[in-house]
Amino acid sequence: MEWDVWFQDKTFTTDWSSSNYAHWARNCEKFRQRAVSVLEIGSWEGRSAIFFLEFLPKCRISCIDTFAAGPGYAYLGDAVVNSIEARFDSNLSPYRDRVRKLTSRSLPALDQLAQENATFDLIYIDGSHARDDVLMDSVQAWRLLAPNGICIWDDYTWGLPDMPSAERPQHAIDAFLDSHADEFQILHTSAQIVVEKRPGGRANRGNRLTFPRTAANLMRFLTRRPMRH
Ligand SMILES: C[S@@+](CC[C@H](N)C(=O)[O-])C[C@H]1O[C@@H](n2cnc3c(N)ncnc32)[C@H](O)[C@@H]1O
Q: What tens digit of pLDDT does each residue of 168-201 get?
C-alpha cells in the first residue's frame, strides 16, 4: 500500500487506524489537492493525523487531545501512557508547519475554536468514547464544519454488545444524526460513520440511522457490515 511508507520512520505503540485508510482515502478524495483545514479530536500518537497530512498534502490540521489517555488505556502500561504526547510531538515534527496542537479537553478547545470563528472541511471525532462526551463533541464540532465538509466518527460499534450505553459512542452518534437528519448525507457506515454536511440543511429524511430492527440487520451490525433499510 502506498501509505505504509508514511509511518515507517515514526514510533507507535498501537494501530487503531490503518483499517480505515482505504475508506478515508475514498471519502476524502475530493479534498486531495485542496488547501483544506482538518480538525481531529483525539490524536494519541498521531497516526490518524499523519494519514490526513500525507493524503491531503496541502491541508493544515488542528489536533485536540489531553494526551492524558484515561482509565481505559491503563492496560497499555505506564511507560506507554506517560509518553503519548512525546511520541505525538516526535511523529508530527516533520509536519510542524501544518499542525496546531491543542493540549486540552475537547470541549474548551472546541469552544476556543468557535470563538476564533474557525471552520473546518474535515473533522475526525475520536476522543472520549463515553456516550455523553461523544454527543457534546459532535454538537460542538458540527458547528465548526463547513458546508460540504466531511465528518468522520470512529468507533460506532465499539463496546458492543456488552458495554453499557453510557460508556460507548453508538447512541450518541445515533442521537446526533437523528436530530440533524436534514443536514447531511451518509457516505459510509461500518465501525465508522462518515457524513457530508449539506449546505443549508436541506431535508433528507432518508439519512436517518434508524435501520429496521430485523435479525438480518442485527447480524450485519454485529459483524460490522452496512445495515439495510
Ligand atoms: C483512540 S485515541 C485516538 C487515536 C488516534 N485518532 C489514532 O487513530 O491514532 C483517543 C484519544 O482521545 C484522547 N481523549 C480522551 N478523552 C478526551 C477529551 N475529553 N478531550 C480530549 N482528548 C481526549 C485520549 O487522550 C486519546 O489520546
A: 999 999 999 999 999 999 999 999 999 999 987 5
Pocket test for ligand 1, best of 12, 20, 44 (most atoms within 8 A of CB): 44
Cα(127) to centroid of ligand 1, in Å?
4
CA of 129 to the centre of ligand 1 (A): 9
pTM: 0.89
Q: Which atom of ligand 1 is nearest to the CA of 68?
A: 25
The answer to whether the CB of 186 falls within 8 A of the CB of 207 is yes
For 34-86, write each residue's pLDDT tens digit.
999 999 999 999 999 999 999 999 999 999 999 999 889 999 999 999 999 99
**Domain spans of the chain?**
18-222
| Ligand 1 site residues, Cβ closer than 6 angstroms | 16-17, 42-44, 47-48, 64-70, 84, 105-106, 126-128, 133
How many angstroms separate the CA atoms of 186 and 192, rounded? 11
Which CATH number among 3.30.70.1150, 3.40.50.1820, 3.40.50.1860, 3.40.50.150 corresponds to the domain 18-222? 3.40.50.150
The H-assigned helical ranges of the chain are 21-28, 47-55, 78-81, 84-92, 106-115, 131-144, 170-179, 215-222
In contact, 184 and 196? CB cutoff 8 Å: yes
